[in-house]
Amino acid sequence: MAVQTLPSPAGVQAGPRPRLVELPRPSAPADGVARRVGMALTFAALLVCGFFVYLYGLSGVAEAREQSVLYKTFAAQLSQATAPVGPTLDPDGTTVRYIPEGAPVALVDIPSLGISGLVVVEGTTSGDMMRGPGHVRASALPGQAGVSVIYGRAATFGAPFAHLMRLNQGDRITVTTGQGVSTYKVASFGSASSPAPDTTANRLVLETGNSGLLSNGALMVSADLTGTPQQNPGGWPRITPQEKYLAGDPGALLPLALWSQALLLLAVGGVVAAQSWSRWAAYLCVAPAVIAVAWAVYENTAALLPNLN
To answer: pLDDT per residue over 264-307, tens digit each?
Structure first.
């Protein structure tokens, strides 16, 4: 029997089957760069948000810890009669030794504001006042003859003078120094542009910022000494520009630059470790170091801000 061959469809020629051609895939580097940029921006945003959380929240915790240490130190000095009361001369009789900046010099009680045992430190740089209110070094110590000036923050680091303007005339302010306890009575109020009236020779002036966010001026309360003033040794130093009201501390710039570099290196190291190792394990290992270094960055950044804020 003859085998019949079916003709090919019209217009179609027999031949080899066509080969499949793979289209090129999109290049991955562009996606990788975009992801890294996104991570960097997210990290920067977290740092900025973290700074405001630190400044208006956690800085008060740091100040409370410092106040606790300062209170114990000053209480021990009072009990041993070694609390500083002013500049002293070295045994050679020629060299003046000033009270070290940051050292506790007084305790302040303001019952009407609920303030009790508030430690005042020597110096008014932004860094000094992270520990508590600062005594203006060019003025007398509280209780001494003359005018004593104390600066206090209005919004950050515990905001010890946040409610200063709630005081009323006649309210009592009690201070304790190495020379004893002195009492003042609130007499007048003022601001940087219109200072409180100078009513008596022996008085205490409390100053703070005029805003809860970023102060651009100062508010002040003047209180008159009610008893006999303590002896003023004199010889107080002049204050530096960074100790004036609303001044920042430029000395924090170098530490800020160094800590910022350390933070950047940690962040880059964390990303590299995450790519070559387990991502979450790398992040968990790097996170404590990042938090500690970020805290140092925040402290030095805050030191650049106005000392009354």
So the answer is: 998 888 777 777 777 777 778 888 898 999 999 999 999 999 99
Q: Using an 8 Å Cβ cutoff, are 286 and 266 in contact? A: yes
Distance (Å, rounded) from C-alpha 51 to C-alpha 300? 11
Record the pTM: 0.84
Of the candidates 62, 80, 19, 294, the residue with the CA atom closest to the CA atom of residue 159: 62
- Other CB atoms within 10 A of residue 172 CB: 15
Among 167, 216, 166, 224, CA closest to 193: 216
Output the six-digit token pair for 25. 């895939």
Can you tell me the distance from the alpha carbon of 185 to that of 173, in angstroms, rounded to the nearest whole number?
6
Question: What secondary structure does DSSP assign to 181-248, as a single string?
Answer: EEEEEEEEEEESSSPPP---SSEEEEEEES-SSS-SSEEEEEEEE-SPPBP----PPPPPGGGSTT--
Distance of CA 25 to CAs 22, 28, 29, 34, 118, Å?
Answer: 9, 9, 12, 18, 68
User: In whole angstroms, how large is the CA radius of gyration of the chain?
Assistant: 33
